[in-house]
Amino acid sequence: MANEHFEKVKAISDQIPYLKHLGIEMLEAGEGWVKMKMSFRPEFLQPFVVHGGAIYSLADAAAAHALMTIVAPKEMLTTVEQRINFLKAVKAQDLYCEANVVHLGKTLAYAEVSVTFDDGTLVAKSTATLMRLDRARFVG
Fold it and tell me: What local confidence, expressed as pLDDT, does residue 140 receive?
């Protein structure tokens, strides 16, 4: 679903090499939330289930993208702390992720993330604290 939030964040997301490397893509976005997908690749296996680091990367990216829908392009952000609970093993399935900003402060934001299979089966839950950064500090 394309809208102003989706378009502005997708333009930023498309420039992130790590997300391209993992095959993480945005599907939908609105103010304070995103839906993303990571297609299964055999390279994610360790050796029989998907490595938790790949799943964590999806959750981290989704939390950051949810905040970007609110603060970009005026501000940048970074993850300060993120926790994840892995609830189900992933073998050869694509993963879907929804993230929502549930608190937005002047400096910190807090997001909740759910990672699922296509059918909605819950794979992991994550929470993230992100810091809002003045873009002028980082970009000429």
Answer: 57
Q: What is the distance between the alpha carbons of residues 54 and 29, in angstroms, rounded to a whole number?
A: 21
CATH number for the domain harbouring residue 17: 3.10.129.10
Q: Is the pTM of this model over 0.70?
A: yes
Contact predicate 132/75, CB 8 Å: yes
Q: Which domain holds residue 105?
A: 4-137
Number of domains in the chain: 1
Return all residues near 34 (Cβ < 8 A) that are at least 6 apart.
Answer: 9, 26, 28, 62, 65, 66, 69, 98, 99
Classified as helix, coil or strand, 4 is helix
Which residues make beta-bridge pairs with 120? none
